[in-house]
Amino acid sequence: TNVNLYVKRIIESKFPNFKIVSVPNRLQCPPHLQIGAGDIMLEWEDAVQKYGRENVGVAAHAECDPYLIDWVLKNGGKISGSGGMFSAIKNSEKPTHIVATVEGLPERIRNEIPEKTILSPNVFCPNMKFIGQDNGWWVKNAIKIAKTNGEVAGRLIVKNLSYPYYEFEYVGGGRVIEKGDDSLILGPCEIIVDQALIDNAAEPMQILFQ
Question: pLDDT tens digits for 197-210?
């Protein structure tokens, strides 16, 4: 939901007649909500005092608290996905950056851009860890299915401009595992979006890639 709120604000500021709907709504990423805005602000103040304001940058994932996102933007920071954050820091002349996200990206930046000083909260995300090195099968299998039109676990069909916005069709293919807490993780699912919706959204969505 936080990501969708950010997307909504960016797009609707330029296209006020274009409506962004969060489906499903009120879903959050718990690890990102653990990243306190106050903690990041204090980290920023300490870094500014130590290195100088002109030498300190800040970046955050859009999954973070909206208050933190507002603060990052007001301080000239970057709100983006992992790839955008990595590129922004790599191309920045500032030697020190505060990275408001879960573990993984900060370590990658430190390894690949060792000349940068990266300050980041030590927040663990079990779901990101799950699809990491030990369970790379999920990602590799999803890529394989996309390339070969292989069997999927379900299909999310988005075709309506009003509620209900989508339908979910359980196919039963792919791989399903039990997490141990009475919940299941489906294998890769196919998302099918009506072409008229794609055409209508093409221009507004380009803002996100600028």
Answer: 889 888 888 887 76
